[in-house]
Write a structure and sequence with these properties.
single chain; 15 helices; 18 strands; binds zinc ion
């Protein structure tokens, strides 16, 4: 990794910590940003941020953002390095503009001990990674939902949160115990909210597409009833332990997001994130329709030859266009604090099977910024909202466990340079992750990452 000096002249900068945006020149020396000069002054840059940070026609096409932060990713080590490991993950993440990522503990074995937590983030080659990996500990032993994991020891070893992602904690008493133990250890519980009885064998969101394709329904209420229950338990625990924090990950239904909105308005410490695929794709993609969920479409479509693409099988499933709209509305009004990728690489063996037998998951860390920029270009999200959801939103949940994602002088030079008007087409040849299970293969996407710096070192350049 080289640490060259850089001078970025007249780029479109967005600094979500300083709350400034506009044309600026930024200098990097060694591992630090040494100077930032806003062309029209800091006050004007503050006003541009307040107005949404969107560049206008004629503004520079090269944009600089703080390196992105992912709250939810799977790097598949230990246990499934054929799908990904931290080295391939770090290359993919840097290509996506990311400088930090939280790794979920559903490894093999589950990360419920200091040894496994350590093995989750240790590169096989021994070489330093060009990004920061933040391990999330299992919330319960073996992710089995029977007994709280040794959270204090796991936090001492570097865990930034706890979660049984993919294995919802169904026992209400244990859920309360985990919330209390996590609060005592000083970390949030990140919960995948799903009632596994109601979602059992589900293949696609309940609705017209599932009916049309003959796929077994995964009902929306299996998510939003679990969300409501989890919020109720948080309310009881928080009455005793005000520090208790619950973060609900990859919410996908309008009703789930509304539960969170109402709970937040009552003062409860509950937060949530949405994924790039839930905010931008709908279940119409299962029919073979490749259309952003904000675009009007024909409800009477028939399945095309591209139907049943198993790269669309994900949990929770892709839902109706109105649910995608609810994800974007939740980002706009702050109900959702983050866009989290749920990057879930899978080998071809686990995806090249019939739809209902395919593994759940989308490898999304290389395309998430582009998907968010597509929503921004359509006027669905302001640039300020999407940059906050990819930087300061996740950082706030992690409470100072990483440097502030800012572009000010003296900060680490961890940033991404994006050509916002250029487009690219994801393909086996240009994706850097080990698994390419993304439904966006062959789809033209806006926003090409040109350079990702991690503390001044070049993590990606293309
Ligand atoms: Zn999950």
């Amino acid at each position: 990794m080289t640490k060259a000096a850089h001078r970025f002249v007249d780029h479109w900068l967005v600094d979500p910590v300083a709350k400034r945006a506009g044309v600026a020149t930024l200098d990097v020396e060694g591992s630090q940003i040494t100077a930032v000069t806003w062309r029209d002054g800091e006050a004007a840059a503050g006003a541009t941020w307040e107005a949404g940070a969107n560049p206008g026609a004629g503004d520079p096409v090269r944009m600089i953002l703080p390196a992105l932060i992912d709250l939810h990713a799977h790097a598949r080590q230990p246990g499934a390095s054929g799908s990904e490991d931290v080295e391939s993950f770090a290359r993919a993440a840097a290509h996506g503009g990311y400088g930090s990522a939280c790794l979920m503990p559903n490894t093999e074995p589950a990360a419920d001990s200091v040894e496994i937590l350590d093995a989750m983030v240790r590169p096989h080659s021994g070489a330093a990674l060009s990004m920061r990996l933040l391990p999330i500990a299992a919330a319960t032993v073996g992710r089995r939902g029977e007994q709280v994991a040794p959270l204090a020891a796991l936090v001492a070893a570097g865990a930034v949160a706890c979660s049984d992602d993919g294995a919802p904690i169904t026992d209400p008493r244990l859920f309360a115990e985990v919330l209390a133990a996590a609060a005592t250890a000083g970390i949030p519980l990140i919960e995948h909210s799903e009632d596994p009885v109601q979602s059992a064998d589900g293949e696609a969101a309940d609705g017209a597409v599932a009916l049309r394709l003959g796929l077994r329904p995964w009902p929306a209420r299996a998510e939003h009833e679990a969300v409501a229950r989890n919020i109720t338990i948080l309310r009881e625990v928080a009455a005793r332990i005000p520090r208790a924090r619950l973060h609900l990950t990859h919410l996908s239904t309008a009703a789930s997001l509304q539960h969170v909105r109402v709970a937040q308005a009552s003062g409860l410490q509950v937060t949530c994130d949405v994924t790039p695929h839930h905010l931008a794709l709908s279940d119409a993609w299962l029919m073979g329709e490749q259309r952003w969920s904000w675009l009007p479409g024909d409800d009477a479509i028939s399945p095309s030859a591209a139907a049943f693409n198993t790269n669309l099988r994900v949990c929770p499933p892709l839902r109706a266009a109105v649910d995608g709209a609810a994800c974007r509305a939740a980002l706009r009004d702050g109900t959702a604090c983050a866009i989290a990728t749920d990057h879930a690489p899978h080998s071809r063996e686990r995806k090249e099977v019939e739809f209902g037998r395919a593994a759940n998951g989308i490898a999304g860390i290389e395309t998430s910024l582009s998907v968010a920029l597509a929503a921004q270009a359509a006027g669905e999200l302001s640039l300020a909202t999407l940059v906050a959801a990819l930087t300061t939103g996740p950082a706030a949940l992690l409470e100072g466990k990483l440097p502030a994602p800012t572009l000010s002088a003296g900060a680490p030079a961890s940033l991404v340079v994006v050509d916002r008007l250029a487009t690219w087409v994801p393909a086996r040849a240009n994706l850097l992750g080990r698994s390419i299970n993304t439904p966006l293969l062959g789809v033209a996407l806006p926003g090409v990452v040109r350079l990702t710096l991690h503390a001044g070192a070049t993590a990606y350049s293309g």
